[in-house]
Amino acid sequence: MHVGQSLEKGAIYLVTRTSGGRQGVVRKYRDWLPGIPDWAIVTLGEGETPLIEAPHLSERIGTRLYLKFEGMNPTASFKDRGMTVALSVAVAGASRACICASTGNTAAAAAAYSARAGISCFVVVPAGKIALGKAVQVLAHGAKIIQIQGNFDAALKLSQKAAEDLGDVVLVNSVNPDRIEGQKTASLELCEALGRPPDTLVLPVGNAGNITAYWKGFKEWRGAGFADTAPRMFGFQAEGASPLVTGRDFEHPETVASAIRIGAPASKEGALTAVRESGGLIESVTDEEILHAQALLAGEEGVFCEPASAAGIAGLLKLAGEDRCPEGTIVSVLTGHGLKDPDVILKRASLPEPVPATFEALVGSMEKAERAER
Ligand SMILES: *Cc1c(COP(=O)(O)O)cnc(C)c1O
Predict the structure, then answer these.
(1) Which is the most buried residue in 27, 81, 85, 112, by most CB within 10 A?
(2) pTM score
């Protein structure tokens, strides 16, 4: 049973429509996406995320920088853009369940959109490797977690085989082309918001579906005659998980940025094509540089993203330090929200001891805190 079959048309509208202006990317970009019947649309109002100016970071790198804050999607990462399309197609095709391998955010998005669609969701994750906020989301939405004693790449191979052999179970990883279609809508939004494509797009790269999707979106925008140009694509991997930089797969990828802890990117060709065709680059940054960038974003711009999302900013700061930062308008994609991974913050900061509830103690603590900051 799925939503489309179990309810009559009027009721389905209540199930799938969101109010408050956000119609979701399937309705907004209907002409750019695979055909999906209205009754099958599974949306939580994803997309239309803020494009935020970053004055302090712009000054540091010497050119105009915007942040596309994808942490403002319904499950707090860009994965929602792809998942609305993948789950809508699954509902239209009467699939029984979906399955995915995940470092966390794919699982959180699949869990939420499956719950909405009324189909089962299985997520296969490397044991002990999923950030707290993401695990909590999967549990909250009632998806079934299978922890395997293996890395992400093993999880993906197993999920792929399950989908192939079982038939009515859809794989909703980004090797599913519907995911890429949905994710490319972020490029279209950017071109609309800026009035033209940015000169450079910067983003973290893990399995490389997103850089593939953005490039597809920019090419289609140009192909439709809305612009003569497309941005240079700058991808950044974490040093301990940088197969696209070193040219060899990593058997044991390791980085604090769990969302890009991937040793054998499934969309490797897409990433390399995007970089080659756009005149871009793929380089790596260290965990230290990633955490520094995350702290600058949160502390100076007021934008809290998860570690992986800060890899692009870390990369820009590195390029600026070497006098290699590109000129013109740069957009850095902040792929997921900082609340996804509270442990990273709690490792370097904690709540202070309580003080008496007196004015003296309050003022004393305020002075002490300001001294410590200097
Ligand atoms: C999935 C994800 C990435 C990596 O995207 P790919 O398409 O795998 O390259 C980066 N950051 C966050 C927060 C993610 O969830």
Answers:
(1) 85
(2) 0.93
